[in-house]
Write a structure and sequence with these properties.
alpha/beta, Rossmann fold, 2 domains, 5-stranded parallel beta sheet, binds flavin-adenine dinucleotide, binds FE2/S2 (inorganic) cluster
């Protein structure tokens, strides 16, 4: 395994990650609104930096021992917003939060997308749309294609990424990958990412793995990539 240093938590609730600092703070919930089957959880930003699009935060769901990793979806002034798919106990608890409640958040963590790109094309599948609104805003609303299983899920693209071309199954998002796309930045389920990589080997891909700490300490997110093992939380999630 490649030697990568393990960041440490300091008493001041700051994680030092090779010069970049992630903070853990108690943030107040501003609101949690449904968008199709997903929820947009809006938090007061406090002293946390929004970071680079594609980086993620560990959100401590009420009553759950382990925090859940979430990509930053939007970063309006003074806020951090996360788009959450309620697929299990932790995400359901996060989606049930109400304005005025407070929760601990740690971040920003991991490596974001490389933003020095000439002709960006955003590609997302399902809840992989989550980091795209912040990425789109940062890159000046480049073209985007997004795929969903259902029309209800596609509401998320209509609300949060209005310039996106949408594919709903049986049409696949890769059916919309035409011509010779230069700089593909993608997030979505693993089979979609593999299909995108097969078509555009240079694509930047946002991968997922179960994560317990988010900063290199637990080894819960180790995946095999290119004949070596990586901790996705500190070497990724963008690879
Ligand atoms: C870097 C990163 C960014 C993410 N960003 C978002 C986001 O913006 N919005 C969002 O809704 N979700 C996001 N996720 C996924 C989210 O963290 C998980 O869905 C969540 O942790 C599940 O918690 P739970 O308690 O609801 O479900 P659990 O009860 O823990 O799990 C439900 C099911 O999902 C599987 N599962 C859980 N976590 C993962 C995972 N990370 N990868 C693959 N399978 C998993 C479990 O094995 C189980 O089958 C992200 C994950 C990562 C690693
Ligand atoms: S989540 Fe703990 S090492 Fe990556």
């Amino acid at each position: 395994m490649t030697e990568v240093s393990t960041p440490t938590m300091t008493p001041s609730d700051t994680v030092s990650l090779g010069g970049r600092a992630a903070r853990r703070e108690l943030l107040t919930v501003l609101g949690c609104e449904p968008i199709g089957p997903y929820s947009l959880l809006r938090l007061e930003r406090g002293g946390l930096e929004p970071g680079i699009p594609g980086q993620f935060f560990m959100l401590e769901a009420p009553g759950r021992l382990l925090p859940r990793p979430m990509s930053l979806c939007q970063a309006p002034p003074g806020e951090l917003a996360f788009l959450i798919d309620p697929i299990g106990s932790g995400t359901r608890a996060l989606c049930a939060l109400e304005a005025g409640e407070a929760m601990h958040v740690l971040g920003p963590l991991g490596n974001g997308f490389e933003l020095e790109v000439e002709r960006p094309l955003l590609v997302a599948g399902g809840i992989g749309i989550a980091p795209m609104p912040y990425l789109s805003q940062t890159l000046g609303q480049p073209p985007a294609i997004v795929g969903f299983r259902t029309e209800a899920q596609a509401e998320a693209a209509r609300a949060l990424l209005p310039q996106a071309e949408i594919a709903v199954e049986p049409q696949l998002v890769t059916d919309l990958l035409r011509g010779d796309p230069d700089d593909v930045l993608a997030c979505g389920p693993e089979p979609m990412l593999e299909a995108v990589r097969a078509l555009v080997p240079s694509a930047q891909l946002a991968w997922e793995a179960p994560m317990a700490c988010g900063y290199g300490a637990c080894y819960g997110c180790v995946v095999e990539r290119g004949q070596r093992y990586v901790r996705l939380c500190i070497e990724g999630p963008i690879l």
